[in-house]
Write a structure and sequence with these properties.
With 350 residues, the chain is of the alpha+beta class. It is 37% helix and 20% strand. The protein contains eleven helices and eleven strands. Strands 2-3-7-8-4-5-6 form a seven-stranded mixed beta sheet. Strands 1-11-10-9 form a four-stranded antiparallel beta sheet. The longest helix is centred in the middle third of the chain and has 17 residues. The N and C termini lie close together (9 Å).
């Protein structure tokens, strides 16, 4: 009689990795049934992918997994999942009610990648649209381009039929912005260095007081999925750095930084300090490391070491000389999932 493989054993062997603590990772898996298919469906996302719920009570990962197992397109599934978070007014890290920039304006970024089609789309600094991930997909589907930005991205969204709103702030996000503004700019025209430090100090104080979640300073959601056919797709969407300089764009809408998908290899996405990840293009780096045989864990750790090596400014280092910020990667190795499932299928037929 075959030895029953446990959920823990499967996850450990399947090549699914996230360089994150369990509280920072949301995963949805298929039931423990041996079925003869090339891969095992899975959805991996950042932690906020397992918090917000839709009218059916489904979280991002649950929604995406349900759609994938029903045979729907993987990219449509993971986007439908993150839409739940984008539309949640209580989540201040993405979409509607995301923490605004320094002038109180919500500016959003998103990117999508379709592994089987080898296509991608992204928007940056878009205003007035609650679901930038859907606009990014329209860029992929309706244009010959990968990235649209700012006011013209908004015009494109309007032409594609999206509702444009004057203000995406909720009362919660607006109140938090007012509190941040009160603490950072009591008298105008501070010295730029003093003002920047005042902004960081105010943000730290608001985290310490429980007004905002620490991981929402660099708020983002990444979600990657694999279908039973081994099809890999991913999406990253964000309101960016809280109270950022207007026009600032981080890693989320940049292919290879906040998201990278290769249909033959797997996917990687990130949350955390976008500038650090953008500088090293770590999502692309992780997928390339896996292409060369590294496990998801080793690939993610190698990328983190690259971030550490590239962080040399004193303002970005703690008392131990290490980065004083957070970067987290969410990684799926499609080849390992496929190999493991084939191995399980062979065992089941013996």
């Amino acid at each position: 009689m075959n030895k029953q493989i446990t959920r823990r054993d499967f996850v450990a062997a399947a090549g699914i990795g996230a360089i994150a603590s369990p509280s920072l990772l949301a995963v949805a898996e298929a039931p423990q049934v041996l079925i003869k298919r090339s891969a095992r469906p899975i959805v991996v996302s950042s932690a906020n992918g397992n918090k917000s719920k839709d009218a059916e009570g489904l979280t991002c990962t649950a929604k995406a997994f349900k759609m994938i197992t029903e045979g729907q397109d993987v990219l449509d599934a993971v986007i439908a999942g993150v839409n739940i978070v984008e539309l949640d007014p209580e989540d201040t890290s993405v979409g509607y009610g995301g923490l605004p920039n320094a002038e109180g304006v919500v500016q959003l970024d998103s990117s999508v990648m379709h592994g089987p089609l080898k296509r991608a789309g992204a928007v940056a600094c878009i205003e007035g649209v609650r679901t930038p991930s859907l606009v990014a997909k329209k860029v992929m589907d309706e244009t010959d381009h990968h990235l649209l930005v700012g006011k013209d991205a908004q015009k494109f969204a309007r032409n594609m039929g999206f509702k444009i709103e004057d203000d995406l702030n909720t009362e919660k996000s607006r109140k938090l912005w007012r509190e941040w503004k009160r603490r950072t700019d009591p008298s105008h025209y501070l010295d730029p260095k003093e003002r920047a430090e005042a902004g960081r100090r105010a943000a730290r104080e608001m985290v310490a007081e429980g007004l905002i979640a620490g991981d929402h300073i660099y708020g983002t959601i990444n979600c990657n999925g694999v279908s039973a056919k081994g099809e890999v797709c991913g999406v990253t969407t964000t309101s960016g750095l809280a109270w950022k300089i207007p026009g600032r764009v981080g890693d989320s809408p940049i292919l290879g930084a906040g998201l990278y998908v290769d249909g033959e290899i797997g996917a990687a996405g990130s949350t955390g300090r976008g500038e650090a990840n953008l500088f090293s293009l770590c999502s692309f780096l992780i997928v390339e490391f896996m292409r060369n045989g590294m496990s998801p864990k080793d690939a993610g750790m190698a990328a983190l070491k690259r971030v550490v090596a590239n962080t040399v400014e004193k303002r970005l280092l703690n008392s131990r000389g290490k980065p004083n910020f957070n970067v987290i990667y969410y990684i799926v190795n499609a080849r390992e999932i496929t190999r493991q499932c084939r191995y399980m299928n062979r065992k089941g037929s013996q």
